[in-house]
C-alpha cells in the first residue's frame, strides 16, 4: 500500500471520516423512517372480511356460499359429482388421467390430487354455508330465511360427506379460530348433518320451498342412520312436484356444470351398463328417466375403447342438478313402508311415481309414463327393486353411493355383489375393493385426525 | 413520486456533506495504455488512483486522462481484462498534468478484475466471496449462443441452466447453488445496468401443455458487455429480500470515446430436431373380430392365456416422412451496432432483428386431410408451421461526463417479441402426443393418431407477444477524492399478451372447444428501482485503508392482468366479441420493498480486506407483526501472493464470507381475505364473495444464511488459474405452502415458516492455457460443481408437502421424485414374458431421486491457430446425479399399450416388468448425460479482404449446438421437464415435448 494522502487531507482525516460515517448513518436513518406509508400497497383483488358487514355484505356472503356449494358439487374439474358417479356403477371412465381412473376403479390412492381437491371443495361449500349463516344471523337477523337455506346447504354438504367418505371422516372449523375435528363415524356424520338441519328449521321463515328442502334432507340423513320410519315421517308433507336444484351457468368457468364437459366435450364419462358385472343396466334399459344418446359414435373418441352413452340431462354447462325432490320423498316413504313390512304401500308409492311421470310439475320431466311394477314376491327382490327405482329416479344426482353403502350396511349385502368388480373395461386393469372413499391425504395436517380409523373397504 | 423525491433527497444529503470540502489546487493524470507485445493502444483499460475515486477508462486509441486530481502523490493501478495488472506512482502538481504510460503484458488469467457489487464497482480482490464473470461481448461472436440462457450454460460453476424443451422461445430454469425454497420462486434475481428486471415472468396463461417463454431471454446477448453471477447469500446480502437464490448482474455495452465504430453482423442457419422419438407397437391377436378388424393381444395377456398372439406391427409415426411433425427450420439474425463519442459524451446504439422457426409442423398426411376436409389448398401458415419466434431489439446507451466529478448514463433497451407456441407436452391436442401414443394397428393406418389428430390440434394457436422496455439512468458524483455518490433509477416494463384462438369447425371435436374459442389475456408488469448510495474512502494509517458505503434501495413491482375468454364463436370469427359464452377477470399484484444498508471495509496493505455489512429490509408482503428483516454479512479476502511474474506460484488469494438474505412470501400470503366471485342463482348470476386467503400475520421472510470459503490461485506463469469454493447454505424459516386439512373448508394451502433447507457444495473452476505459441494456443476451462440439497427439518406435526410425483420430505432433497414403482421382477416360469404376478411393486411411495442435477461439469476448449486468426471452440457438458421421470415410455405402456414392452416378446425383461407394474414410478430413470453442447470455427478474414469492403476486422464463424449426446435415459432427451415452464421445479416429469434441437449457424461479423 503506497497511497499517501495529501497533507491537507491528512489533517482533515478525522473530519472526513466523521462526515462519511455521518452521511452513511443519515441515509440509513432517513431511508428507514415513515415506512408504513411507503410499504402501503393497494390490493383491489382483496376484500377485507370487515367490509362484508350489513345487508349488502350479507347478500354477497349468501350468494357466494350457495355458489361455493354448487362449485363443490360439480363446478370444477374435480367435483363431488365426478367422484361419486365414477365410484359407483352410474358412470364409467373413457379418458386416460390415472388419477380419475382410480375413482372408476374403486382404487383411489392416498396421493390422488383430484381426490384432494374434491375433499376440499365439498368442505369449502360446507364451511361457506356455515360461515354465511352465522354472519347473516349476526348482521341481519337469525330468522332471515337465507340463514335457514345456508344451514340446509351445510346439512346437504355434510350428508355428501357421510354418504361418500369412510366412517371416520372429520369436520373442522376454520374461523374465527381453527378447530380441528376428530374422526366421526358415519352415524355421527349424519347426526352432524341433522344438527345443521335443525338450525335450518328454525330459520325457514315459513318459506315452503325451504321447509320442503329441510324435510327431504332430514329424511335422507335419517335414512342413512337406518331410522326408516322417522325418515318417512319427515318427508310426508313434501309434495311430489317439489324439487330443489343447485344451479349452474355457462357464462363463467366457475359456474359451469362440469359434468357437461366430461360427458360431451371430452368423452371422459359415459353412462354405464352393468358395470363390473354388478352394475345396473342404466344405458341399455331404455328408461326415460335416464335419457342417453350416442351422438358421437359408439366409443369414446378419447380412448377409442369405452362404450359412450351421453346422459342428456347434463347436456349444457348450465344444466342444474336436483338435490332434493318430491320424488325422493316418495322413495323414502316407500322404503319406510317396506321396512314396516307394508309391501302394499311400498308398491303403491313406487307405482304412483311411475304413473305420474310425464305429468306437468314432475321434475325432471323425463318422458312418458312407466308401466307399473309388480311385487317380486321376495324380501330380497323387493329391496332390489326399491334400490333400482331409487337409482333410476335419482340417477346422476349423487345419491347412488349412499344407497350402495346402505345396501351393505343396512341390508347386509356383500359389497362384491353390489359394486362393480373384476376386470376393468380397458387398460388391462382389475378393479379394487373400496366401497367408500378414503379421506384425502391432506387431512394428515389435522392433528386430531387418525387415518387408521378410515377404512375405505368398509361401508 | 414522493418516494423518488425522498431518494433523491438522500443523494442531496450526501452531496451537501461532501460539498464542505475545500476545493484544492488540482491537476490531472494522463497517458496511454498499450499492449506490450505489439504497441497498439488498448481500449477499455481502467486506470485508478487507489483509495480514491479518481479513475479513467482508456479510449479507442488507448489514451486516458484523469482530471480534477488534487495535488499529491498517488498510487495508480491499471486493470484490463487479459492483461496483468500493474501499479505505478504519480505526483500531481497544481495545474500540471502528470503523464503515466502503461505497457501491459498479456496474460491468460489474472486476479484483477473490476466487478460490480451492490455498493458500486470494486476490485474482485477485495471481495470475500466468489463472483463469476462472463465476458459476453467476446463470447457471442464465436460461440453458438442465441439466448442469455445459452450464454450462462456451462460457463459458471454452480449455475445450472436446464432447458425445459426444444420449442423455440421456450424458457429455462436457472438454478444457482441448488434449490432453496420449497414453495417460492427459485430463480435468481436479475439486474441490468443496476436495476432489477423481470426474471422468468408469469408463465404462459393459455394452456398448451406446459411450455412457456421466459422474459429472461429478452435480454439480448449481443448487447451485453459482461455478466456477473453472485451466487449465494454470502455475496448477495446487500441485495436484500428475494436474493437468496443468487443474483445475475448484467452490464450492457457502453460507448468508448473515439470515432464511430460500426459493427454489422448477419447470422443464418438451420435448426434440426434429431430426437430419437419412440416408435409404437401393436401385437395383434391371431383372430380378427367378426367385423374383420384387428384385435390387440398384449404380451402379458397372451402369457396368461387370454389371447393368442398373431402378427406384430410397429411404426414410428413421429419419424415416418409422411406423418412426421418434425421439420428443419431456419434461423436468421441481423444486427448493427455503433459506438463512439468524445471524452464528454459517449454512445452505444444497437438494433437487431431475429427470426427463428420452430421444428414442428403439420404432418403431410394431415395437410392432405385438411385440404380435403375444408375443400381448400391454402391452409393458414400458422397451422402449418405452429412454432415461431421473432424479435426486434433496440438499445441506446448514452454516457456523459459532465465534469471530472460527475457523469451520467442513460440506458434504454427495447425488445419486441412475437412467439407462436405450439400445442405440445401434457396436452391431448399436442402434436407429439398424437404420434408417440398413436397406433400401429393396420386398421388405423390412415389415422394413427391418439387423442386429437394434428389437423385439429394445430388448429389451436397460442402465442405471446410482448414489448419489453428496460430503462435506467445512473448518475455518479464524486465531490471529493474520498466521497463518491451515486443514484440509479429505472423501470423495467413489460406489456404482453397471451392469446389463443381456435376457429369454429377447425378444432378437435372432443377437446371442449369444438365450436371455437378465443383467449386474450393482457398483462402489464412494472418494476421500479431506485438505488441511492455513497461510498467514502479514507485511510486510518498508511497501511490501513477504509471504505464506508451506505445506501437506500426502493423497489416496487406491479403486475396487472386482464383475462378474457370467449367460447362458441361464429364461423370465421377470431375475436371473443361475438362468443356465446364469455368470461373475464382481472387481478393486480403489488409488492414494495424498502432496504437500507451500510457496509464497512478495511484494507490492510492492499492485501487483506475485511468487510462487514448490514441490510435492513421492509416489505409489504411480510406479516403485519414482522415487517422488518435484518441481513448481516462479514467477509475477508487475503491476497497472499500476487504478481509473481514467473515460477510455480504466481498468485494466491484466500477468501471467505458469511451472509444472510431472504425470500419474500407472496403479495397476499399474510392476509385473510375474500375475493369476488359470481354465483348462479335463481334469477340469474349474482355477485358473491369467496374465502380466498387464510394468512398468518406473523409470516416472515425465509432466511438463507450461507458461509463460503475458497481460494484463487495462479500457477505456472499464470497459465493456470484455479478457483475452488465450498459453501454451506441453510435456509431457515423456510416458507412452505402447507396443505391445510381439507375438512377446514378454507383454502388449499397456507404459507407458513416451517422448515430448514440445506444446500452445501463445492465449485471448481480451472482455466488453463495448455499451449501457447504464435500459431497455436489452446485454452481450456473446466467448470464443475457438486450440490447436496436436503430438507433438514419440518415443524412438528407437519406431514411432508407433496405434489404430482414430488415430495418435500425431511432428509431428502426438495422436489425429490417420489412414487410407487417396480422394485424387482423374476421370470419365474422362464417363458420370456413377465406377467404382473412376477413383479414386486412398492405399495407406498419411495424416494426415486433428485429432480435437479446435483453434479455438473463443462469443459470449454478454445484453440487458436495462425496467430489466432482461426479459432476452434467446443463445449462439452455433463450433468448427473438426478432422475427424470420418463412418462413418455410410461404412458405408452400404462395408458395406451403401444410401447414395445407391452407388445414385443423380444423386449428386455426389465422393460416388460416396468410395464406390468402398472406404476409410473417405475419410469424414474437416470437422467445423466454428456452433451457436445457447442462447437465453433471462427476465421478472422485477411485484412486485404476486409479492406475491400472498407472494414477493419471481419470474422466468419461456423457454429453448431447440441451436436451429440450420450445418455442412458429411455426416451429422447432427459432434460425435458414438461410442466416446469409453468410450475417451476415441481411437478417434474418428462413428457412428449420436443428435444433440444441441433443448430448450425454461419455468422459474419464486420467492424468498420
What does it look like?
The complex is a heterodimer of chains A (459) and B (1008). Chain A has 459 residues and is mainly alpha-helical. Chain A has helices at 7-11, 13-32, 35-39, 54-74, 80-87, 98-104, 113-139, 145-164, 186-201, 208-224, 228-235, 258-265, 326-339, 343-356, 379-393, 400-409, 415-418; strands spanning 91-93, 243-246, 269-271, 292-293, 310-311, 321-325. Chain A is globular. Residues 1-15 of chain A have low confidence and may be disordered. Chain B has 1008 residues and is mostly beta strands. Chain B is built from 14 helices and 51 strands. In chain B, the strands form 11 sheets. Chain B has a 22-stranded antiparallel beta barrel. A 5-stranded mixed beta sheet of chain B has the order 11-16-17-14-15. In chain B, strand 12 (159-163) and strand 13 (172-176) form a beta hairpin. The radius of gyration of chain B is 30 Å and the shape is globular. At the A-B interface, helix 1, helix 2, helix 3, helix 4 and helix 7 of A face helix 1, strand 5, strand 27, strand 28 and strand 29 of B.
Question: Tags for this entry?
Answer:
heterodimer, A: 459 residues, mainly alpha, two-stranded antiparallel ribbon, 17 helices, 6 strands, globular, disordered N terminus, B: 1008 residues, mainly beta, 22-stranded antiparallel β-barrel, five-stranded mixed sheet, 14 helices, 9% helix
Gyration radius of chain B, to the nearest Å? 30 Å
The biggest beta sheet of chain A reads: 2 strands, antiparallel
Compute the CA-based radius of gyration of chain A.
29 Å
Instruction: Classify the beta-strand content of chain B into a percent band.
Output: over 45%
Secondary-structure element series of chain A: HHHHHEHHHHHHEHEEEEHHHHH
Low-confidence stretches of chain A: 1-15
Amino acid at each position: 500500500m503506497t497511497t499517501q494522502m495529501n497533507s491537507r487531507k491528512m489533517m482533515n482525516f478525522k473530519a472526513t471520516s466523521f462526515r462519511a460515517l455521518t452521511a452513511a448513518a443519515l441515509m440509513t436513518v432517513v431511508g428507514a423512517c415513515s415506512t408504513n406509508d411507503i410499504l402501503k400497497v393497494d390490493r383491489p383483488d382483496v376484500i377485507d372480511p370487515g367490509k362484508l358487514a350489513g345487508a349488502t355484505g350479507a347478500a354477497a356472503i349468501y350468494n357466494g356460499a350457495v355458489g361455493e356449494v354448487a362449485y363443490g358439487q360439480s363446478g370444477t374439474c374435480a367435483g363431488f359429482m365426478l367422484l361419486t358417479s365414477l365410484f359407483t356403477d352410474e358412470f364409467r371412465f373413457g379418458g386416460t388421467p390415472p388419477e380419475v381412473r382410480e375413482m372408476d376403479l374403486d382404487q383411489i390412492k392416498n396421493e390422488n390430487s383430484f381426490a384432494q381437491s374434491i375433499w376440499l371443495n365439498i368442505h369449502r361449500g360446507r364451511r361457506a354455508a356455515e360461515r354465511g349463516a352465522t354472519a347473516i344471523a349476526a348482521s341481519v337477523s337469525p330468522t332471515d330465511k337465507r340463514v335457514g337455506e345456508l344451514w340446509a346447504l351445510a346439512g346437504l354438504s355434510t350428508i355428501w360427506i357421510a354418504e361418500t367418505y369412510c366412517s371416520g371422516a372429520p369436520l373442522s372449523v376454520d374461523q374465527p379460530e381453527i378447530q380441528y375435528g376428530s374422526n366421526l363415524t358415519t352415524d355421527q356424520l349424519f347426526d352432524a348433518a341433522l344438527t345443521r338441519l335443525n338450525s335450518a328449521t328454525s330459520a325457514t321463515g315459513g318459506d315452503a320451498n325451504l321447509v320442503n328442502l329441510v324435510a327431504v334432507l332430514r329424511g335422507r340423513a335419517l335414512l342413512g342412520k337406518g331410522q326408516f320410519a322417522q325418515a318417512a315421517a319427515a318427508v310426508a308433507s313434501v309434495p311430489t312436484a317439489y324439487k330443489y336444484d343447485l344451479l349452474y351457468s355457462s357464462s363463467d368457468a366457475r359456474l359451469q356444470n362440469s359434468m357437461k364437459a366430461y360427458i360431451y366435450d371430452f368423452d371422459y364419462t359415459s353412462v354405464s351398463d352393468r358395470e363390473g358385472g354388478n352394475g345396473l343396466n342404466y344405458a341399455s334399459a331404455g328408461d326415460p328417466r335416464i335419457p342417453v344418446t350416442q351422438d358421437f359414435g359408439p366409443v369414446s373418441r378419447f380412448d377409442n375403447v369405452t362404450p359412450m352413452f351421453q346422459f342428456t340431462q347434463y347436456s349444457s354447462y348450465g344444466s342444474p342438478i336436483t338435490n332434493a325432490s318430491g320424488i325422493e320423498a316418495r322413495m323414502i316413504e316407500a322404503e319406510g313402508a317396506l321396512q314396516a313390512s307394508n309391501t302394499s304401500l311400498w308398491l303403491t308409492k313406487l307405482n304412483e311415481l311411475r304413473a305420474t311421470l310425464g305429468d306437468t310439475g314432475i321434475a325432471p320431466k323425463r318422458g312418458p309414463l312407466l308401466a307399473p311394477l309388480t311385487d317380486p314376491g321376495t324380501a330380497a327382490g323387493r329391496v332390489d327393486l326399491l334400490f333400482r327405482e331409487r337409482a333410476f329416479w335419482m340417477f346422476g344426482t349423487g345419491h347412488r353411493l349412499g344407497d350402495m353403502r346402505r345396501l351393505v350396511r343396512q341390508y347386509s349385502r356383500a359389497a362384491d355383489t353390489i359394486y362393480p368388480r373384476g376386470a376393468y373395461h380397458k387398460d388391462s386393469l382389475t378393479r379394487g375393493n373400496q366401497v367408500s372413499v378414503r379421506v384425502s391425504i391432506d387431512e394428515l395436517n389435522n392433528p386430531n385426525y387418525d387415518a387408521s380409523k378410515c377404512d375405505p373397504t368398509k361401508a | 413520486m414522493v418516494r423518488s423525491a425522498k431518494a433523491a433527497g438522500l443523494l442531496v444529503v450526501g452531496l451537501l456533506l461532501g460539498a464542505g470540502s475545500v476545493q484544492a489546487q488540482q491537476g490531472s493524470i494522463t497517458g496511454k495504455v498499450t499492449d506490450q507485445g505489439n504497441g497498439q493502444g488498448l481500449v477499455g483499460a481502467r486506470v485508478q488512483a487507489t483509495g480514491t475515486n479518481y479513475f479513467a477508462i482508456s479510449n479507442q486509441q488507448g489514451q486516458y486522462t484523469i482530471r480534477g486530481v488534487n495535488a499529491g502523490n498517488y498510487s495508480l493501478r491499471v486493470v484490463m481484462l487479459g492483461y496483468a495488472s500493474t501499479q505505478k506512482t504519480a505526483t500531481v502538481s497544481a495545474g500540471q498534468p502528470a503523464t503515466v504510460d502503461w505497457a501491459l503484458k498479456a496474460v491468460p488469467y489474472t486476479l484483477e478484475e473490476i466487478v460490480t457489487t451492490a455498493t458500486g464497482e470494486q476490485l474482485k480482490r477485495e471481495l470475500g466471496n466468489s463472483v463469476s464473470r462472463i465476458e459476453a461481448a467476446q463470447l457471442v461472436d464465436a460461440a453458438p449462443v442465441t439466448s442469455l440462457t445459452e450464454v450462462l450454460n456451462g460457463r459458471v460453476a454452480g449455475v445450472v441452466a436446464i432447458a425445459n424443451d426444444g420449442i423455440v422461445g421456450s424458457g429455462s430454469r436457472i438454478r444457482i447453488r441448488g434449490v432453496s425454497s420449497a414453495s417460492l420462486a427459485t430463480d435468481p434475481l436479475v439486474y441490468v445496468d443496476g436495476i432489477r428486471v423481470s426474471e422468468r415472468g408469469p408463465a404462459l396463461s393459455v394452456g398448451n401443455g406446459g411450455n412457456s417463454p421466459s422474459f429472461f431471454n429478452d435480454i439480448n446477448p449481443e448487447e451485453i458487455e459482461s455478466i456477473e453471477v453472485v451466487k449465494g447469500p454470502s455475496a448477495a446480502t446487500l441485495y436484500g429480500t428475494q436474493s437468496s437464490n443468487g443474483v445475475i448482474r448484467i452490464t450492457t455495452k457502453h460507448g468508448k470515446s473515439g470515432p464511430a465504430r460500426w459493427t454489422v453482423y448477419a447470422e443464418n442457419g438451420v435448426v434440426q430436431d434429431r430426437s430419437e422419438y419412440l416408435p409404437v407397437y401393436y401385437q395383434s391377436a391371431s383372430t380378427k373380430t367378426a367385423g374383420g378388424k384387428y384385435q390387440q393381444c398384449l404380451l402379458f395377456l397372451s402369457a396368461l392365456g387370454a389371447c393368442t398372439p398373431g402378427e406384430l406391427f410397429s411404426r414410428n409415426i413421429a419419424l415416418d416422412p409422411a406423418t412426421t411433425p418434425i421439420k428443419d427450420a431456419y434461423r436468421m439474425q441481423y444486427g448493427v451496432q455503433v459506438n463512439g463519442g468524445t471524452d464528454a459524451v459517449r454512445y452505444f446504439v444497437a438494433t437487431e432483428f431475429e427470426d427463428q422457426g420452430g421444428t414442428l409442423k403439420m404432418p403431410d398426411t394431415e395437410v392432405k386431410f385438411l385440404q380435403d376436409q375444408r375443400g381448400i389448398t391454402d391452409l393458414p401458415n400458422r397451422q402449418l408451421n405452429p412454432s415461431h419466434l421473432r424479435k426486434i431489439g433496440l438499445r441506446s446507451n448514452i454516457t456523459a461526463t459532465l465534469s471530472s466529478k460527475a457523469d451520467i448514463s442513460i440506458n434504454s433497451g427495447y425488445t419486441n417479441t412475437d412467439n407462436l407456441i405450439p400445442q405440445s407436452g401434457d396436452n391431448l391436442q399436442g402434436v407429439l402426443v398424437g404420434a408417440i401414443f398413436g397406433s400401429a394397428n393396420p386398421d388405423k393406418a390412415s389415422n394413427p393418431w391418439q387423442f386429437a389428430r394434428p389437423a385439429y390440434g394445430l388448429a389451436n394457436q397460442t402465442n405471446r407477444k410482448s414489448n419489453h422496455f428496460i430503462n435506467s439512468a445512473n448518475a455518479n458524483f464524486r465531490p471529493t477524492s474520498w466521497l463518491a455518490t451515486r443514484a440509479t433509477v429505472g423501470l423495467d416494463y413489460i406489456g404482453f399478451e397471451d392469446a389463443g384462438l381456435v376457429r369454429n369447425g377447425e378444432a378437435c371435436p372432443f377437446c371442449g372447444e369444438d365450436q371455437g374459442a378465443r383467449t386474450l389475456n393482457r398483462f402489464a408488469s412494472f418494476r421500479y428501482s431506485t438505488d441511492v448510495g455513497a461510498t467514502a474512502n479514507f485511510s486510518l494509517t498508511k497501511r490501513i485503508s477504509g471504505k464506508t458505503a451506505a445506501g437506500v434501495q426502493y423497489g416496487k413491482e406491479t403486475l396487472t392482468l386482464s383475462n378474457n375468454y370467449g367460447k362458441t364463436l361464429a364461423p370465421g370469427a377470431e375475436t371473443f366479441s361475438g362468443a356465446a359464452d364469455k368470461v373475464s377477470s382481472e387481478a393486480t399484484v403489488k409488492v414494495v420493498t424498502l432496504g437500507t444498508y451500510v457496509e464497512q471495509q478495511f484494507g490492510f496493505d492492499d492485501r487483506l480486506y475485511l468487510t462487514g455489512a448490514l441490510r435492513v429490509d421492509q416489505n409489504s408482503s411480510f406479516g403485519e407483526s414482522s415487517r422488518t428483516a435484518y441481513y448481516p454479512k462479514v467477509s475477508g479476502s487475503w491476497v497472499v501472493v500476487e504478481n509473481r511474474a514467473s515460477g510455480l506460484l504466481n498468485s494466491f488469494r484466500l477468501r471467505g464470507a458469511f451472509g444472510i438474505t431472504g425470500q419474500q412470501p407472496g403479495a397476499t400470503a399474510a392476509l385473510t381475505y375474500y375475493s369476488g366471485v359470481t354465483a348462479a342463482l335463481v334469477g340469474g348470476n349474482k355477485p358473491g364473495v369467496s374465502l380466498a386467503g387464510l394468512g398468518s400475520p406473523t409470516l416472515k421472510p425465509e432466511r438463507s444464511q450461507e458461509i463460503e470459503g475458497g481460494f484463487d490461485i495462479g500457477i505456472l506463469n499464470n497459465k493456470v488459474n484455479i478457483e475452488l469454493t465450498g459453501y454451506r447454505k441453510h435456509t431457515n424459516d423456510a416458507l412452505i405452502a402447507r396443505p391445510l386439512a381439507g375438512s377446514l373448508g378454507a383454502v388449499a394451502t397456507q404459507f407458513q415458516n416451517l422448515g430448514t433447507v440445506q444446500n452445501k457444495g463445492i465449485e471448481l473452476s480451472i482455466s488453463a492455457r495448455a499451449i501457447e505459441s504464435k500459431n497455436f494456443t489452446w485454452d481450456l476451462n473446466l467448470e464443475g460443481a457438486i450440490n447436496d440439497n436436503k430438507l433438514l427439518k419440518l415443524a412438528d406435526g407437519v406431514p411432508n408437502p407433496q405434489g404430482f410425483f414430488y415430495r418435500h420430505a425431511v432428509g431428502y432433497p426438495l422436489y425429490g421424485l417420489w412414487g410407487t414403482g417396480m422394485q424387482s421382477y423374476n421370470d419365474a416360469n422362464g417363458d420370456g414374458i413377465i406377467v404382473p404376478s412376477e413383479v414386486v411393486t412398492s405399495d407406498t411411495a419411495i424416494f426415486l431421486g433428485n429432480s435437479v442435477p446435483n453434479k455438473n461439469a463443462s469443459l470449454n476448449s478454445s484453440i487458436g491457430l495462425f496467430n489466432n486468426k482461426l479459432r476452434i471452440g467446443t463445449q462439452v457438458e455433463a450433468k448427473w446425479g438426478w432422475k427424470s421421470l420418463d412418462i413418455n415410455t410410461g404412458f405408452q405402456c400404462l395408458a395406451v399399450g403401444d410401447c414395445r414392452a407391452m407388445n414385443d416378446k423380444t423386449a428386455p425383461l426389465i422393460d416388460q416388468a416396468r410395464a406390468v407394474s402398472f406404476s409410473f414410478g417405475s419410469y424414474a430413470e437416470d437422467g445423466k448425460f454428456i452433451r457436445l453442447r457447442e462447437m465453433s470455427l471462427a476465421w478472422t478474414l485477411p485484412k486485404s479482404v476486409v479492406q475491400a469492403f472498407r472494414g477493419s476486422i471481419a470474422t466468419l464463424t461456423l457454429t453448431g449446438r447440441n451436436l451429440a449426446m450420450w445418455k442412458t435415459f429411455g426416451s429422447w432427451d432427459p432434460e425435458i421437464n414438461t410442466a416446469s415452464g409453468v410450475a417451476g421445479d415441481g411437478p417434474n416429469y418428462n413428457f412428449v415435448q420436443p428435444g433440444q434441437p441441433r443448430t448450425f449457424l454461419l455468422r459474419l461479423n464486420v467492424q468498420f
